[in-house]
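Lab notebook: predicted structure, single chain.

Context: the supervisor wants predicted structures on file for every construct in the current expression panel, including those that have not yet been purified. This is the next one on the list. No modifications to the sequence; it matches the entry in the shared construct table.
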Amino acid sequence: MQHRLGPVVVRRWCAMALDALRDARAELDGINVFPVADGDTGSNLCRTMEAAARRLREAPGESAAAALHAMSHGALLGACGNSGTILAQLLRGMAEEYAAEERAVAHRPGGDEVLDGALLRRALARAVAGAYEAVARPVEGTMLSVAAAAVPPPLAIATTAVDDGTASASAGVPAAEEALAVARDAHARARTALVATRGQLPALTEAGVVDAGGQGLVAVLGALADALATEPSASSGGLPAEPEQRPATDLPDAGAAGLGGATGIAEYEVMYLLDASDRAVRGLRTKLAELGDSLVVIGGEGLWNVHVHTRDAGAAVEMGIEAGRPHRLRITYLEDAGHHGQPEHPGQPPIPRCEPSAAAAVAADSVDTLDGPARARAVVTMVTGDGLEDLCTAAGATVLRTDLADIAPEDFEAPGGGANGGGAPRPGTPVSAAPGPGVTELTAAVLRTRAPEAVLLPNEAGLRDVAGEAAERLRSAGVRAAVIPTRAVVQGLAALAVHEPASRFDEDVVAMTAAAGATRYGEVSVADRRSWTTAGVCQAGDALGLVDGDVALIGREVEETAVAVLDRMLAAGGELVTLVRGTRTPTGLTARLAARVRDGYLAVDTVVYDGRQETGTLLIGVE
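Prediction complete. Output recorded below exactly as produced.
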């Protein structure tokens, strides 16, 4: 009788776990109240395990380590939601421990293996450690605490029940039986911990339910015990119904179930796979932890799965672009989900927000007239120059002129006395003080369109705070709003180029954010005074070449500087060059630059726009 966790048992476990989750799917969705009462925990766990099963069918593996690796890799690629991401990391931890043991056996004198039960216990412990490390702010009373409680201590199997239901000392349990004993002990411990979750989180206590993710994990561990057993035992199934377990229709409103009161702020669930280095991911974790909550980052060896809840989906994707190459982006709008962020920030007050009545009043006072028929989705972009205004208007955007309106470049000061000329801030320069009137005007511009959805393009790093505050006011006034974190007008043009008014809001935001993030931006300006820059000291009249917001070089002539900036930007590759000429662009310069690209760079196209902007002699974008 074999009860070892070999490749056949791993495949059996995967199939049985998937069946168990499918059977429990509706119940798990119904009791899902934390961290967001969006009724999808069972669905997310099923989709994650389905991805694991698909990968395991494609690469079944000839050892437990190989099979577990295939299972965990599939779960990593297909993880859905908070619970699915944690489950994928738990599988990864088990796979890593079995792979480590496989390597150790190969180098161990005589090739002796450790007892299979001890290995399974270590694998469960490593899985839990990895899951806790992956979650930015672990919360007790959740799937994590159920997983932690499930790990048997080293001597726990000394009194673990065996097939005949009697207790037996570990010395009396055959080595081949120990994996089954550990699995059954882990399942029993998890069941006990699951019942306790009801009293650990006020959201669960108020709803009268246990943690949905934890109950899903109990089903997975029960399937592991059944897969190891010769015949699946009836006692290793799902959690029996608990008294007073209310159906989903009887759950209280999510806004009343949080610790200290839910914030009620509409949020997005952002998920994407990311190709990035370990170092880049460490920095990404820190940034995303400040941007939102329910943050889980899993993976390794260059491939990661990122999950976060945030009010700024665009910024979350932009941070991923800065860290590496995000793909398979998914953004879900958690409208009225009543996010329970408070338990993840013990001792901290809820995130501040505008009161709906006050925000609506401020917005209403700002609306003079309505702009024609109501739109399904408004895109508001901020630009300078008559040409850029005409271009964006033709693309269907509502335009705010930062050189004419309350959001004015004169309200900002560039370091070094505005060496880039015209008094405008250098791209990437932070705002010295965000002007209040700009927020009001931006909010009013959206409300005049009467659109229920809005996308904001600040096109300047210094205006992101203005756009962010406007988006908060719009959400409080009932408008679904997102900010694409564009730092330059060429990024805004790239976002507009892929805008699809007929697509789903989430898909449109993802596509526009990805297009903007994939666009490098440059500029050639003329210094109006002597100043220090990141490239050295410039004199009045010098040509300044900026790349991604920093002065990269200082030249004597505008054209030679423009050529150098363009060549530097194309050195990293590109498929499309965008040139936006201003009122001070030398005659024929854009035509000569376009010819240079055509003759010197294979399969790179060039588009030229007459922006007629006063600031920025020449704007350059490379996609």
